[in-house]
Amino acid sequence: METPVREPTFLILTALAAEPLHGYGLITEVARLSDGRVSLRPGTLYGALDRLVDAGLVAVEREEVVDSRLRRYYRLTDHGGELLAAETERMRRNVEAATARLTTRTPRLRGGTA
Predict the structure, then answer these.
(1) CATH assignment of the domain containing 76
(2) How many separate domains does the chain show?
(3) Following DSSP, what letter does each residue of 31-73 receive, concatenated?
(4) What is the pTM of this model?
């Protein structure tokens, strides 16, 4: 998987950078990290997790049975951490460039001539 990554993928990797999480924990953490802008449905999340596991960015940490249901915890792999760091740096540089441009921006006059 190459950068740039899509925002939901970035947020999943970011959520897993702190600790292993199960599906519902990931859904909750992604919503928190995005201030509610990104709301993952279970089908979307598990499809993304399957792709991330296949790419070697995320791995299954452990499984446990809770209330007769299997709960699978996922963790960020070293490769996933490297991708997240690279993507974070790419985004940081973009923000830095935009911030520099905005601070030198000349305000436009409104409503006619001066």
Answers:
(1) 1.10.10.10
(2) 1
(3) HHHTTTS----HHHHHHHHHHHHHTTSEEEEEEEEETTEEEEE
(4) 0.85
